[in-house]
Amino acid sequence: MHLIELYKSVQGESSFTGVPCIFVRLAGCNLRCAWCDSEYTFTGGKPYTADEIIAEIAALQPCPLIEFTGGEPMLQARELLPLMQCLLGAGYTLMMETSGERPLADVPKAVHKIVDVKCPGAGAAANSFRMENLAALTMNDEVKFVLSDRADYEFARDFIRDHDLAAKCVNILLSPAFSKTPTDLRSTENATLDPRLVVEWMLADGLPARLSLQIHKYVWEPRKKGV
Ligand code: SF4
After folding, report:
1. Model-level pTM?
2. pLDDT, tens digit, for every residue of 87-114?
3. How far is the CA of 69 from the centre of ligand 1 (A)?
4. Given CA atoms 126, 198, 181, 42 in this order, what sign does their dihedral have?
């Protein structure tokens, strides 16, 4: 497998927000979201065997929560899925951040998937969500919409309602997009959509969703990597 980095921090998003977590960031992505904050994952990466990854995770114990992220982890599904089975068997709790564009049916059900549905503001990546992945969602899973503007919010709202998403996953995340050129201020001024607006819209519509701020961009300076 090709890895960009492996490190321990706290989980920045989802219902695990703030919980210590080991991040395994895989190289490569087949999408190009307009607001991507992980372009450094698109190329390169260091080759690792599954045993080497397991050893690195063991060296960072105690920390039972592991997230696979990227890039797009499912581009390396052939090696990733057996590694997940092995880590689940060893008692770890696993998460995976995925764009929702690759097939997810073969991911072990115990893995907490955080599945993006790309909104129009994602630019070239808009409409990339693979609709059959709705059937692969479990009540371990969370669905995330990154919002750039009101049009993105309305897309998310309609998608949530049209597909009865609240009945298909445990948590629906609405995440204001973040500037690609943030200041060093740990401030919502770096969000390209004011979180307060998202809250007002959610409440007005009675939407069964959760505001999601990426807390690592407030705990540390927003451009800091490996946190
Ligand atoms: S799917 Fe993720 S890594 Fe890929 S371009 Fe979009 S935000 Fe970046």
Report:
1. 0.95
2. 999 999 999 999 999 999 999 999 999 9
3. 10
4. negative
Q: What is the DSSP letter of 13?
A: S
Show the tokens assigned to 86: 């092995």
C-alpha dihedral sign at 61, 66, 67, 70 = positive
| Coil/strand/helix, residue 216 | helix
Tell me the helices (H) and strands (E) count for the chain, helix number first: 5, 9
CB 95 within 8 A of CB 53: no
Closest residue (by CA) to atom 8 of ligand 1? 36
Q: Is 114 in the pocket of ligand 1 (CB under 6 A)?
A: no
Report strand pairing: 46-47 vs 2-10.
antiparallel
Tracing tokens 């890895």 back to the chain, one arrives at 3
**Is residue 179 over pLDDT 90?**
no
Q: How far is the CA of 118 from the centre of ligand 1 (A)?
A: 10
| Among 91, 93, 87, 92, CA closest to 113 | 93
